[in-house]
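Supplementary notes (optional reading)

For those who missed the lab, this is the record we used. Protein: Zinc finger protein 2. Length: 808 residues.
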Amino acid sequence: MSGCLSKGGKEPVEPPIFNCKWTPCKRKFTLKFLLEKHEILCPHNNLLQPTLSPAISPSSVTIPTSEFLSTPTSCTFAALTPPPTPDSTGSSSANITTGRKRKSDGSRVLLSTPKSTSSKPKVSCPKQCGKTFSRKSEATRHRKLCGLTDEEKKKAIKIRFGNDPTHVCCNCGEVFEQTNGKTAHEDRCALTVDEMKEKYKDDPGHFCCNCAQFFIDTSNRQQHERSCGVTKEEMMERFKDNVQHWCSKCDYFSVNVSNMSKHKAACNKTKEELMIEYRDDPKRWCSKCDYFSFDLTTLSRHEAACSKTKEELMIVYKDDPYHWCEQCGHLFFSDVRSQKLHKLRYHTHIDVRTITLQQMKVVHPLKHNNDGIGEEDPLDPLDKENFDFIVKKKLEWADTFAHNKADTNFVYRAACLSHSFSSSSTTYSDFVVGHPEEVGAYSGVKGKVEGLDIHNWHKYFPQKSKPGQAALRGQEIVFFGQTCFKGQDSATQARKQEALEINYGFYANKYKGEKMYYINVERELTNLSYNSDAAIMKMLSMAVRGEPSFCHKTECECPAYFHFELDKMKKVEFSSIDKTRIKKESPPRLPPQKARPQTEEDLKREIDRLFRSLKEEMRLNLETKFNVYSVLIVNKADFPGMSDPCEILVALRTRKGLVVWCYSGKGVEAADGNIHAHHQYGESTIMNELEKGDKIAIKIARMRCSCQRDAEEKEAFLQYTTGVSSRKKSHGIRIVPINIRMEWTAWLRLSDPIRKLAQECGELGTSLYSFADHPYAPLYQEGEFVYPIDVARQVEKGEVAIVKFVDC
C-alpha cells in the first residue's frame, strides 16, 4: 500500500511545499496558484512560452484530467469557430428578431426593447494581458502600450505626442497620452493653490456650497458635500433604512456606496481567502513581484515603487510636486497621501468655524499651520458671544484629537543583532532562532500614527536611544511586531504590558543560559504597579525559570507575552544617521550572571524572594514626591556679561520683542532642588538647547504634586496653555514652548472647568510667567501649583537657579 495511509494512520498536518521549477531559483510556496504566478514572472525563466499552432485541430489536442481540474491557462485558438446554435424545430430562420419581445397594443403588435439587467460585454486586451475595457477604442489604445515598462511607456508617448502642445505640460514638459490628463496635471504643476482658486473663482463646481472649500477635482467636491457639516452619527440616522450604505455582515457604515461595495467584497475574509478568490485577477497582483492587494489604489502605489530604494524614488519623482514639500526645505514623501496629510497638518490655515470632524482627529490643535504661530490675534473677552463660541469649538477640537490619539496604542518589539549577523550568509529568522544569545530585545509604547515600526524618537535622537546606540555601533535593528490596545484606557494597558516585559528582561538578564538579553534600562515601576500581583508573579516565574517572553511559534500555547512571525520581521531604517558616524564597536557587557535554581523548591523560594523585594521597591516608588517644574531659556547674546539668574530676570522686565523659550515638565523631586535627573542621562530637550553653549537655562519654579498622575495632569495643563498662548501676537516678551509633545491621556483626565480655563487663558494670550512688581493673583492654584507663575515671588523664595549639566 505504498503511497496510502493505513486505516489508523495519522494524517499529515504540514501543508505541501511547492518549489519553483526554474533553476537556480529557490523560492517556495504553500499555495499552487502562487507558484504558477511566480514561475511566469521568475527572473530565471528564460524559455519561450509555447503557442498553439492554427494547424492543430481541436480533436488532436488531449487535455489530461489533472490539468482539466486545475485552473487552465487562457489560450487563443485561432482555428476554432463556435458552431451555429440550432433552433428548437431543427430548422433555421433568418427572420426572427432577437433581443426584443412582442407585446399587444390593442389593434397592433409592437416590439419592445426590455431593459437589460446584464452589463455590456467587456473587450479584452488583444495581447491577452488579462485587462478588460468597456469600449473597443480603449482596448486599442491600451494595446499600443501593453507590456511596456513605465520608462518605455513614457518614451513611446513622448515620441508620438511630444510635438503636440495639447499633450505637453507648459510648465515641466511632461507628455500625456490624453489631453484631459494633461489639463488636470497642468493645473497642479504650473499653478499654485491660490492661482487655481483665482482661475476657477467663477466656477461653482470647484467650491463646496456649504463651507466654500476649494477642490481641484470636482468629483472630490461632490463627495465632500455629501457629508460637509454633518457628523457621522447624523449621516447614519439619515441612511438608516438604506441598505446600500450598510454592510449586512457587520455594523460597518459608509456614505460612499462604492466604498461599501469594496467593503462587502472583503468583509470577514482573511487575506489568504482573498488571495485564493482573486488568484486569476491580474488587477490584484503586482506585475513585477508576488505582491497582492485587494485595494487597487494600494496596488497601484506599490507597483510605482516596487523594487526601488528611497533614493531611486526621489529621482523618479523629482519633478512631481505631489511628492515634495517646498515649504519644509524640499522634504520628500514616497507616498502622496503622506504629503497631503503633512500639508494639512503643518501648512494649512484651519478655520475653527468650518473645521471638519476628520480634521479635528488628525490635525494637532497646538502645532497646526506653522506660518500662523505667533501671528494670531488674542480674542476679545468683551465680545462674549464670539469668545465663548471659539473657546467651545477649540476645546471640542482638542478633546477630539486627544480621544483619537488615546484611542489606540501599541506595545512594539524590536531587537538589535550582534556583529556576527550577515545578510549575505543568513536570514533574520535563521539568526534569531539559531543564536538567541546574540539578540538584544527591546519593548516600547507608541501611538497609532507610527505604522509597523518603532517609535520615531529613536530615529530622531539615536544617541539617547538604546536601539539608536546599537545602530551607531553598526548593529542591525529588526522590528519583530506589535500588540494593539484599543479604547480610552489603551494607554494605561499598553504601559502596563510594556512594564511587565521590561522587568522580565531586568530579571532574566541575571541568570545564565542561551536566551535573548534585554537592552531596556528604565524599569517603569509606576506602570508596573498597575498590574495585579498574579501578573507580576507570572512575570517573575517566567524570568527565573527561563521561559521566553518572545516566541516565534505562532500557534503554540506557551506563556510568552508575544508570538512573532519569523517571515514578517523587517529591518528598521535609521535614515537620519550619517554613515560617517557609524563606528563598529562591541555592545556593552551584560552584568554578572548567576546559575538558575534547579529544584522546584529552590525556584519557588527565589520567586517569592524577588516578589517581596519588588513589592517593596514599588511601594517606595509610589511614595516618591513628584514635581512639576518650569525652566526659562534665554540667549546669552541678549544679556552680555550677565550670569546671575536674578539679574537676567530683572533685565527681562524692560525688554520688548525678545524671544525666550520655556520648558514645562514633571519628574521625581530632586534632593538638590534641581529639575528631574533624567535630563542628565536620558532624552533631554533642555540639554539639546544648551549643547552649543549659546543659551542659559534658568529654573523658575518647582511645584510639588500629590502623586505621579497629579503631576502628569498639571504638566498637561501648562503645556496646553502655553501652546495656545504662543500662537498669539505678543507686545512684550514672546515665550515659545519647546516641549508640546503632550500626554493627551492626562489632558482628558482634567475636569471640564480646568480644561476650559486652560483654553481661555491661552486664547487671551496669558503668559506663563508674571514679571509684575506687585503681587499677582493666580488664575489657578491647587496646593503648591500656581498659574501664572509669579517670577518676583519665586526670586524671593530663592527658587530661581541656573540649570547645570555635567556635560555643559
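If you only remember one thing from this example: The CA atoms of residues 44 and 331 lie 39 Å apart.
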